[in-house]
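Field log, afternoon session.

UNIT: design team B
ACTIVITY: writing a sequence onto a fixed backbone
BACKBONE:
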């Protein structure tokens, strides 16, 4: 089984407002599908992730499911992050979990 999730942008300036993260490219050949998680530092818990134009509220526990499929798939999503005033940045990574 092969699964991977990659983002086209690596570094984004930590400034209030919305910043593009580029594209999230997913591939997973798991017969039962997969989930893509965003993992982030506690400092980003008040930020919002924007996936294909839809806002995703980040949970306080440092991980949020942002995409999933119930079958093997190749998919791509536009990503952005909205940082409110007072958030000075943090780390954000993406991982894919086969089901």
């Amino acid at each position: 089984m092969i699964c991977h999730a990659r983002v086209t942008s690596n570094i984004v300036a930590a400034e209030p407002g919305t910043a593009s993260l580029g594209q999230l490219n997913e591939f997973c050949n798991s017969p039962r599908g997969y989930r893509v998680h965003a993992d982030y530092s506690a400092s980003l818990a008040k930020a919002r992730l924007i996936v294909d134009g839809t806002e995703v509220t980040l949970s306080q526990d440092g991980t949020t499911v942002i995409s999933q499929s119930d079958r093997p798939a190749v998919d791509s999503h536009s990503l952005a992050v909205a940082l409110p005033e007072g958030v000075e940045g943090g780390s954000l990574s993406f991982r894919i979990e086969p089901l």
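LOG NOTE: The mean pLDDT is 90.
NEXT ACTIVITY: expression trials, pending approval
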